[in-house]
Every structure is written in structure tokens, then in C-alpha cells.
Write a structure and sequence with these properties.
alpha+beta; Helix Hairpins; BirA Bifunctional Protein, domain 2; eight-stranded mixed sheet; three-stranded antiparallel sheet; 18 strands; about 20% strand; aminoacyl-trna synthetase; SerRS_1_N_sf
């Protein structure tokens, strides 16, 4: 959510930003907000005058009563009573107007950074840099579910009977590999100075409204029936929510946290949910990182955060690239975002495994996450988030880039301590037909 004062003073900049995000249907909202805000401020001004008058008249009544001028005091009381009725009406109007202003402001997109490429959808995203040499071996790379099945490592049929499409059972070495990646990612981020955290897996609607757009909420979040609770789609939501309604000492910033959590997503309208495999699923686990910092530090942290993900993937022998998200592919709260994509030797292309975002003060403004400076001045913090690793997709990249011609899978040195010292995984002979 952008600053209302900024919108009021720079309506053309806000409109141009809306156009850059290809959301022209929102253009009338800018003028509507300005009109509603003017009415709200006018109503507030009248209400403030009546409150001041009430205090003045109350003192006048006391003075008149002290002078024995009862009739004059009664006339003033009538005026106070009439003013009270009007004040009550104004207070209702003010709340209604402010609520409407906030409702519209919640859907007006954040101002994107000037460096963001302009484009309508993800087809206009721009490659930034490649890390590692993408290799296509001279032998066939099997589909990731088939590789997992060769280790007796996945049971989609049983999961379908228990929970439906978009769920899975991981078993044996594949399940261990899944947990090893998460444990390694946890320690990787701790070694980089982040504080480890396990957050709540459910959040209230006030936090949901603060961390994401309504469109995202509708397509992602599972609501707990009969309660003001939602299952998290990513631990970023509850991690940023940790700071709701807080005033933080400037010298304690930045807060750098890395969190583990399961994640739950409806994947509404997503293609491929019926596909066999674990690329797009309703339930998965993830290691996340978030930063709450001063505005002037946000861009340094943005670059550090996506580099952390790149470094982690490269330490596991997985080639990756970074991709700049264009204006039309940015969620409304984001100032700038880049995706980290891993190489798929089977598909001979890259696919998304993480996303790093700078949200400016949009989430902080919604959640009232403020900072108290040395001079006592208060301002909104900046928030950033980034995926460290999400093992279902990470497992796809890991297996495809580390599988050998005989079906065995190499375990990179960095991951070996988390796999009981194993250097290689050998598939089940029955599955391989050997």
C-alpha cells in the first residue's frame, strides 16, 4: 500500500505506474481516492471543531452555573446536545469514508522501481545472469517421478486416495534427501548470519491483509472454517506478521530471519496440478528468509538475499540463472523482484525454484511496522523476502543434475553429512529391473 499523501500529491505518477503494470481498470481509483480523502478530511475538520467547541462550551456551562445563571446554562447545554448529535453523524461518516479510502488503497499497486523492465506477463521477464554451466548428458534423463520411483521414494497413488491430486508420500532415501536439503539450507543461512525461526503455520486475517494482495489471497490461501485463521502459503507471511503493530529501535535493525515451515496452497487456476509429480502441489516444505530493515539498506539486502539462494544451489552442483520480473509479473505490493531458476537437463531449460522480492514499505505500512530513529522520529520499515529452498522443486533440479546413466544419484560433498555420509544413492534393483 502506497502512502496516501504521496498519491494525493502525485496522482499522475501513480496513474503512470498503474499503466506500467497493465492495470488500466484501476486508473479511476486514483481520482476516486482523492475525492473520498478530501471529503474525509473535511468531515474530520468539522468534527474536530465540534470537539473543541464541546470542551469550550462545557467550561462555559460550569462558569454560568457557578454564577447562578441556570437558564443561560441550559441554553448552552442544548447547544452541546445538538452538537453531540452532529458529531456522532460526522464520526460515522468519517469512519465510512476512511474505510472506503483504505479499501481502494489496498488494491492500488505499489510504485515499482525504475529498473524494472516493462512487460505484460512473465514472457517479458529478462535474464540477468547465469551461474554454472548447464549440461545435457548424452544419456536420457528420466522424469523426476520416475527417478524417485526407482528408489521406491514416492507414492502418488496412495496420496491420491488419502488426499487427492497435488499430494504425495515421500519414502526412504528420497524422503531423507528432502529433509537433508532443508537441514542443510537451515545451517547454510545460519552461517550467513540469519536467525533461525519456526513460525506459526496459521495466521489471522489482519496479517493476511498486511502481507499480500486480495488476488493472491484468493488464489493461494486455505481458510480454516469457522475461525479467523488461514493456513500459510509461505512462512514469509507469519514471519513478517511477527512485527505487526510494533515500533522498533533503529539501532536493532536489520532483523534477518530464516524460517522453516510447511506451506499450503490452493493453486487456483494452476495448470498441471493433475500431472504426475511434485512440481505443482498443494503441500510442501520450505526454508525462507526475510529481512526487516531501514529503507536505505533495502537494496543491499535485496542483492545479498538472491545471491544466498544462488550460492546454495551452486554448492549442490545445480546450474541456475536469475531472471528479472517485468512490471506485469510483479504482485501489487512488490517494488522489484527476481526469480532464481534451476537448470533442467531433461527439459533443456530453466525452471523457477525461488523468488526474491523487495516490497519497500508496503507491508510495513499495512501492518504498522515502524522504526524509531535516534532523533525520535518514526518511519515505516522496509521488508524483503526470498526463498532459500523449497525441496519438492529443489528435488527435481537436484535429481536431474546429479543422476548418473545407471540411475544412481551423486550426493554433493556439502550434503553428505546430512545423508549419513553417503556419497551416492543406488536405486532399488527391482525397480530398475537389474
Amino acid at each position: 500500500m502506497i502512502d496516501l499523501k504521496f498519491l494525493r500529491e502525485n496522482p499522475e505518477i501513480v496513474k503512470e505506474n498503474i499503466k506500467k503494470k497493465f492495470q488500466d481498470h484501476k486508473l479511476p481509483m486514483v481520482d476516486e481516492v482523492i475525492e473520498l480523502d478530501a471529503k474525509a478530511r473535511q468531515v474530520k475538520s468539522e468534527a474536530d471543531e465540534l470537539r473543541a467547541s464541546r470542551n469550550k462550551l462545557s467550561k462555559q456551562i460550569g462558569a454560568l452555573m457557578g454564577q447562578g445563571k441556570k437558564e443561560e446554562a441550559e441554553e448552552v447545554k442544548k447547544q452541546v446536545s445538538n452538537n453531540a448529535v452532529r458529531l456522532s453523524e460526522l464520526e460515522v461518516q468519517e469512519k465510512e469514508l476512511n474505510d472506503k479510502v483504505r479499501e481502494i488503497m489496498m488494491v492500488i499497486p505499489n510504485i515499482i522501481d525504475p529498473s524494472v523492465p516493462i512487460g505484460k506477463d512473465d514472457s517479458c521477464n529478462v535474464e540477468i545472469e547465469k551461474f554454472g554451466e548447464p549440461v545435457v548428458p548424452d544419456y536420457e534423463i528420466k522424469y523426476h517421478a520416475d527417478i524417485m520411483e526407482s528408489f521406491d521414494g514416492i507414492d502418488l497413488d496412495a496420496a491420491g486416495k488419502v488426499a487427492g491430486n497435488g499430494f504425495y508420500y515421500l519414502m526412504g532415501d528420497i524422503a531423507r534427501l528432502h529433509s537433508a536439503v532443508l537441514a542443510y539450507a537451515r545451517d547454510f543461512m545460519i552461517d550467513r548470519g540469519f536467525t533461525y525461526c519456526i513460525p506459526p503455520y496459521m495466521i489471522r486475517s489482519a496479517v493476511v491483509d498486511g502481507v499480500m494482495s486480495f488476488d493472491e489471497m484468493d488464489s493461494m490461501m486455505y481458510k480454516i472454517e469457522g475461525e479467523d485463521l488461514y493456513l500459510i502459503g509461505t512462512s514469509e507471511h507469519s514471519m513478517i506478521g511477527k512485527f505487526i503493530n510494533t515500533i522498533n529501535d533503529e539501532e536493532k535493525l536489520p532483523y534477518t530471519l530464516t524460517s522453516y515451515s510447511p506451506c499450503f496452497r490452493k493453486e487456483k487456476g494452476a495448470h498441471g496440478i493433475e500431472e504426475r509429480g511434485v512440481y505443482r502441489i498443494h503441500q510442501f516444505e520450505k526454508q525462507e528468509m526475510i529481512v526487516v530493515c531501514k529503507p536505505e539498506e533495502a537494496w543491499d539486502w535485496y542483492n545479498k538475499m538472491w545471491k544466498n539462494t544462488v550460492d546454495l544451489f551452486r554448492s549442490l552442483d545445480i546450474p541456475v540463472r536469475t531472471l528479472e520480473c517485468c512490471s506485469g509479473d510483479l504482485a501489487d505490493l512488490k517494488v522489484k523482484s527476481c526469480d532464481v531458476e534451476a537448470w533442467s537437463p531433461r527439459q533443456k531449460k530453466y525452471f523457477e525454484v525461488g523468488s526474491c522480492s523487495n516490497l519497500g514499505d508496503a507491508q510495513a505500512r499495512r501492518l504498522k511496522i515502524r522504526v524509531k530513529g535516534k532523533n525520535g522520529e518514526k518511519y515505516f520499515a522496509n521488508t524483503l523476502n526470498n526463498t532459500v529452498v523449497a525441496p519438492p522443486r529443489m528435488l527435481i533440479a537436484f535429481l536431474e543434475n546429479n543422476v548418473n546413466e545407471d540411475g544412481s544419484v551423486n550426493i554433493p560433498k556439502a550434503l553428505q553429512p546430512y545423508m549419513g555420509g553417503k556419497t551416492i544413492l543406488v536405486p532399488n534393483k527391482g525397480k530398475n529391473g537389474k
